[in-house]
From TrEMBL, chains A, B:
InterPro entries: Amidase_CS, Amidase_dom, AS_sf. It holds the Pfam family Amidase. Residues 82-548 form the Amidase domain. It comes from the Eukaryota. Belongs to the amidase family. It is an enzyme of class 3 (hydrolase). The active site is at 137 (charge relay system), 212 (charge relay system), 236 (acyl-ester intermediate). Keywords: Hydrolase. GO terms for molecular function: amidase activity. It catalyses: a monocarboxylic acid amide + H2O = a monocarboxylate + NH4(+). Residues 495-514 are annotated as: Disordered. This is amidase. The gene is AMD2_1. Its EC number is 3.5.1.4.
Length: 558, 558
């Protein structure tokens, strides 16, 4: 439920009202007063729900999205049962992690009851997502809720229309049940803002959940939702997915509708933010993309391309055991991933090789990608950010932006657009050049999501490197995270102090920059134990079917 | 052949060199010294080629693109014969109309000989355009030629690479044989520049050929080329097509590659220029789009979408006689088309109705489209145009741009991008709302190309109204011109002087603005006789197959 506070109140009053209102409308039985949010507790909170949920709630909330909808279809559970189970678990997650911004339990419950009645009376499901609870990053407008995009300015303003994506998900039978926390303006890889503060990682609450879709990451990491909607401009879906061991898809622009979602720097088209799903299995991501693509979003969002789900592209890589050609970029030449990530990459490569797939060396110029991306992110000299925080008077968090920078002129910005085109074209030709004797280039490339496992709260500034994620954004490529394993302090020892050898004495590239060194030094086996290890695969533009198909193939190998 | 002049020469020297060099390399037997360019001659020059060409050349040059390639495949003609015939006719057209900028006869001849040898030796065609001569607007870069985009700055600079589209056409077997004249920077609906001056209309040389792809229009109007490549930002393919009675397609962005073509305001993505074909039949346009789409241009141009030719979308409207639902916008409420254009619209409507197709009232807010378009065209305050003319020192032609206007700031420009999105979304919903009881919305809408038949040289400024063409650009919709008839001074009488009745005494809407009045008053049956009458159909974004299919259906009715 929205806060009901006036937009003329001070920013502190608005923020206080928001913090207080998050769980409004959630049944009291789902709210456990003993739980409290902490940012300095190193123990995992993942097991707490099992002590507070009923058997039935537990058996529902361990399901992934595809099995949730299958269970409802088979009448194992009603939509109301499913909604209640996830609401209960999400309320626990929020109390522990501060990951939610607004529950809409009343409306969601009414929708669930209507869906149950429909199924009972007609014997028919309303769509492929019948009864699936979905959590959404607080950029999605939903009638009757507030949408902040991480700014205090949104508190107290009630949406009068649904985002196109929300409308499509609802029509397919989904129940949007909660909106999740995000970084201010979606512009920081840690979930922090003046709206309700920051969000912790359920694997270790002294660690960041990542960002900007960090509320989704934390909530899904706790299985408080079977499906989340995030958005990704430089890694905002993939970093939280990596830090919580989730499957997260960064589609290309024009596949999943963004129209009527709230964003910062709206209208900046040099590199665009995209909406995408985060979930517990690649099959769940497939369900989401298949449903949305087949709903013809291009009839409502002018930026969506007329591309229905292309079954053939999907089947080519999932059926019949075709040999895949996988590009491999374990290291981009600028920042070496921490030891456990190198292990995770090796595990995937070994499994792929053992299964007969081909590994092809691959490296894309991430320095160039990052330079273009940085210019795109800062081209307005913080103009949009500053006017938004000025509207509420909320304090400047002084994160990424350089406030002294002069905005680009239009002509400078057009030159940047052309440079971006040239870079994209260069990489396409580089990709074409990987063709084998049959003319088949690589299908996707495998690469780390981040060079860091996951930063402790406050460490993000020191280990921030968008090269591995941001390159896909700069190229508008399709990328999917692949959770592989967890940090094992006994296996994943720190590199030798000379920076030129790993713990086993094998040569590794010496640090090439202060950042490269800082990221390596930040890794501590003794405190990182148990944190998820995640890699990603990256396909060309608008190759969602292929990328999701290969994600499923890899999952079967792991 | 390029001019070979130094880029440090004065603009007059460069322009003089260009004018002199256009026919360089063309065999002397194809150049008729007695012909001269005129802008005040009211007689049609369409018949002149029949007095100068051989029987064989005549029988080749009356073919459209599809029959040219079929004739080569059947060995009725060699590629060299075809190239020579069109080169001869194009040279005549240029002498009469000043429509060309550079013949590349030497290279084209060598390519034709190679193609003939290949076919002779292997029995195989190299691709679906084997031997087809294609003329291109002077934005297409071709190794060894100059590309001006209508600016003196390009004279003397020799291209070192092909545009992606040129490369694709060449690989499909086409022979790019000539580059055609265009308006300065592609920004004016009349073909005029400091490079070689302006171009006349072959139906009446005292009239404009339109623009900005006016060289293509004039050349194709004379059958000096079987297929042309133009570009369209506000009507630049469709106006010359209309003024010369041609079929011209304005595809949506991302279907036909634009990468490495030269343009003005490069990087401006609010509304983008697109490349498209102009030809003598809708089947020829289909051949072009089918060939390019099936060449996978998205592997080389990062702005192209992965959309191969969709035969199903095409067949739905061409096979089986499905009833079409055609939106009708004969008048947009702002500028009433001149009487002969109203007659042409009525003729098409009658034929469609008689064939059992359904006509549905349709009106889109062209004033809003035009306002957005104008802001997009002028947002840099002429910055790009001015720096380009400054490089060569060529004089300002003082056309459309407002030189005193301050460039938009980035934030203003982003707001414009959002307004454009909202407008596009509104029209999509308006389109959805035309659905009949079976849920089928209109397939396309039928509308004039321009409210004026065609302006006399110098009149364009007085009758300039981009509403009917520019709306498709603003919406990124797919549009195809449909040549219907010719002005008949006996049928197409001027409206009554009161402006409220036509010549037959039927009520017509009174003029609503000075421009509306000026355009009506500009029509004179006695001097417009014989000029082509052309309308257009407009489909939604990326619906090229459907639009081209319906164009073929309409052609069969006419």
């Amino acid at each position: 439920m929205p806060t009901n506070i006036s937009t003329t109140a001070t920013w502190n009053e608005r923020s206080a009202a928001k913090k207080k209102s998050v769980l409004n409308g959630v049944p009291a039985k789902f709210i456990h007063g003993s739980l409290e949010f902490r940012v300095d507790d190193i123990t995992a909170v993942l097991d707490i729900p099992s002590k507070l949920l009923t058997e039935e709630e537990l058996s529902i909330t361990v399901l992934d999205a595809t099995t949730v909808v299958a269970a409802i279809a088979k009448k194992n559970y009603s939509c109301v049962q499913v909604l209640d189970a996830f609401t209960h678990r999400a309320a626990i997650a929020h109390k522990l992690l501060n990951c939610c911004l607004e529950f809409r339990y009343g409306d969601a419950r009414a929708e669930a009851e209507r869906l149950d009645a429909h199924y009972r009376e007609t014997g028919k499901l309303v769509g492929p997502l019948h009864g699936l609870p979905i959590s959404v990053k607080d950029q999605c407008r939903i009638v009757g809720t507030e949408t902040t995009c991480g700014f205090v300015d949104g508190i107290g303003r009630v949406d009068t229309e649904d985002s196109v994506l929300v409308d499509i998900l609802k029509r397919a039978g989904a129940i949007i049940f909660v909106k999740t926390n995000l970084s201010i303006g979606c512009f920081w890889g840690e979930t922090i803002n003046n709206v309700i503060g920051h969000t912790s990682n359920p694997f270790n609450r002294s660690f960041s959940c990542g960002g900007s879709s960090g509320g989704e990451g934390a909530l899904l990491g706790m299985h408080g939702s079977p499906m989340g909607v995030g958005s990704d401009l430089g890694g905002s879906i993939r970093s939280p997915s990596a830090y919580q061991g989730l499957w997260g898809l960064r589609p290309s622009t024009g596949r999943i509708p963004y129209y009527k979602m709230l964003n910062s720097m709206e209208g900046n088209e040099i590199v665009e933010s995209v909406a995408g799903p985060m979930s517990h299995s690649p099959e769940s991501l497939e369900l989401f993309v298949r449903t949305v693509a087949d709903s013809q979003p291009w009839l409502h969002d002018p930026k969506c391309h007329p591309l229905p789900w292309r079954e053939h592209e999907f089947r080519t890589v999932t059926m019949g055991g075709r040999k895949l050609r996988i590009g491999l970029m374990s290291w981009d030449g600028y920042v070496l991933p921490q030891p456990p990530i190198r292990r995770a990459m090796n595990e995937v490569v070994e499994k792929l090789t053992a299964a007969g797939h081909e590994i092809v060396p691959w490296r894309v110029d991430q320095k160039k990608a990052l330079s273009l991306l940085t210019r795109a992110f800062t081209c307005d000299g913080r103009g949009d950010h500053d006017r938004t925080i000025a509207r509420s008077g909320e304090p400047d968090l002084n994160l990424f932006f350089r406030s002294s920078q002069r905005p680009d002129t239009l002509l400078e910005n057009w030159a940047l657009a052309m440079e971006r085109n040239d870079f994209r074209a260069e990489v396409l030709e580089q990709w074409n050049a990987t063709a084998d004797e049959n003319g088949a280039p690589i299908d996707v490339y495998l690469t780390p999501v981040n060079p860091s496992v996951c930063p402790k709260h406050g460490d993000y500034k020191r280990v921030r490197y968008l090269g591995y994620t941001g390159t896909a954004n700069c190229l508008d490529f399709t990328a999917c995270t692949i959770p592989v394993s967890f940090v094992d302090p006994e296996k994943d020892l720190a590199d030798a102090e000379d920076g030129a050898h790993d713990a086993q004495g094998n040569k590794i590239p010496s640090p090439v920059s202060d950042l490269d060194r800082a990221i390596r030094n930040n890794y501590r086996p003794e405190i990182y134990g148990g944190l998820p290890l995640t890699v990603q695969i990256v396909g060309r533009r608008l190759e969602e079917e292929k990328v999701l198909g290969i994600a499923q193939t890899i999952r079967q190998l792991l």
